[in-house]
Design a protein that fits this description.
It is built from eight helices and ten strands. It has about 240 residues and is an alpha/beta fold. It has one domain: Spore Coat Polysaccharide Biosynthesis Protein SpsA, Chain A (Alpha-Beta Complex). It has an eight-stranded mixed beta sheet with strand order 3-2-1-4-9-6-10-5, with helices on both faces. Strands 7-8 form a two-stranded antiparallel sheet.
């Protein structure tokens, strides 16, 4: 089974689609939703749904990406965790994802593209798997640079080399996690045919330029198998 982990904050209009695309689409999925203090009815909606495979974690206030992802992982029931967003939808059947999980690989990267719900049944939108077709390749530089926006981690990674680095405020925390796993020898499987639609919405994530400075510093450590001192390990 897979635990899908994401944060949300005043994103009520996307919740029905998120639920239909995940826990209602496959009974082997759990959704761990970390709410950062929504005031738009999100919390009430999820509680009314009372879905047996949705865990709602109420933070009470906006938090950083690594904070809500780590909190979600700590509450995840299953040994495989899916890094997700509240405004993305899987274009494939989830059984295609399950069929790719094996003993050889430790984390799995999905391909993604901006679009609308209707695009997921459009052959032209679905075609190809690289930049020429507007897909954001999961391996930005195949020789070493690994960036996961959406995909799976086996929990052993979080237990052995830590979870998302709390130094980051938002962007780059996901890239840091994937780079760390790669440089510490965990095996990655690039699932370019597993495609995610990132809905064209008003994004609420904030960009902080110093996050990239932290990432560059940390990657130089990972290349030498050194972990930063502030990494939280999953118990």
């Amino acid at each position: 089974m897979i635990s899908i982990v994401t944060g949300t904050l005043n994103r009520g209009p996307f919740l029905q689609g998120l639920i239909e695309n995940t826990v209602e689409a496959n009974e082997k999925l759990e959704l761990v939703l970390v709410d950062g203090g929504s005031t738009d009815g999100t919390i009430e909606y999820i509680k009314e749904e009372n879905h047996p495979r949705i865990k709602l974690i109420e933070v009470g206030g906006r938090s950083s990406y690594p904070h809500f992802m780590n909190l979600g992982i700590q509450h995840a029931s299953h040994e495989i965790v899916c890094q997700w967003n509240d405004d993305v939808l899987l274009a494939n059947d989830w059984e295609e994802v399950f069929s790719e999980i094996d003993d050889e690989h430790d984390f799995y990267l999905f391909n993604w593209k901006y679009g609308n719900v209707s695009d997921m049944t459009n052959p032209d939108w679905l075609s190809g798997n690289d930049h020429s077709n507007d897909w954001f390749l999961t391996n930005a530089k195949p020789e070493h640079n690994i960036v996961m926006n959406y995909g799976l981690y086996k929990k052993k990674i979080f237990r052995e080399i830590g979870m998302y680095n709390s130094e980051y405020r938002y962007y780059a925390a996901d890239g840091d996690m994937a780079e760390r796993a790669y440089y510490f020898g965990y095996k990655v499987k690039d699932l370019r045919h597993i495609k995610v639609c990132s809905l064209i919405t008003d994004k609420v994530a904030q960009y902080f330029s110093d996050d990239m400075e932290i990432l560059n510093k940390n990657v130089s450590l990972y290349q030498n198998k050194i972990l930063p001192t502030n990494i939280e390990v999953l118990k």
